[in-house]
Request: fold
Amino acid sequence: MKGTLYIVSTPIGNLEDVTLRALRILKEVDVIAAEDTRHSLKFLNHYGIKKRLISYWGEKEKVRAAETLQKLKDGQSVALISDAGTPGISDPGTVLIRGAIEEGIRVVPVPGPSAVITALSLSGFSTEEFTFCGFLPAKATQRRKTLERLSLEQRTLLLYEAPHRILETVVDIRETMGERDIVVIKELTKFFEEVLRGKTSDVLQSLEQTTIAGEYVIVLEGRPEKADVTIDDAIKEVRELMRKGLGRKDAVKRTAAAYGISKKELYDRSLEG
Reply:
């Protein structure tokens, strides 16, 4: 008889943010597949959980997934955990989950902490519809192209970002989307948790004055309805961008993308007067 794969959510910071069911499952399974065993041991030792650990971090994921699948086919039960939050959500784990499904192995979710949902509830923005984008591309050109595409999205946007790119990313958000309401959350649920709210430029200024460290979650309001933005408003923004040194073509492209306006119409109108 095949074993069961449990997808177990673990705390994203505060170790008290774990369910009773998660602790029970972790104590009952035969093996725990952890993203990084050294990191997970701190959490497991805190609750006195002593189990065999398998690391599936980085390059090991495909190989260790195959080994873990064999254990499951042999009848062992496995708990899959990531360093924090829910496995597979901008974290490793999907390879093993997909493999288990293909092998007809029972997969059971043990829900709990998730940084994206926690940040969304904290943001105060609309939660009826939202788009989770994970981590943006590391390269600046690709990151800006992605943000330009997302600038048309009217749903609330959520992003993860690393500390060494947070300032560049918020600058890119301002340049591609203009001034929007934004929430940047540092070290969610941890001792040094910090929540910055306001318009993009205000939050950027606050970030420049604070210590950059830890992981960040960015929550952005969606693009306003087109009806709220006239062509005259868009032309004013084009001219403001040009005043700041941007070429007319790039200023038109950026503004048209942000407001869903025809680039040709906006370009032609920007030449008038």
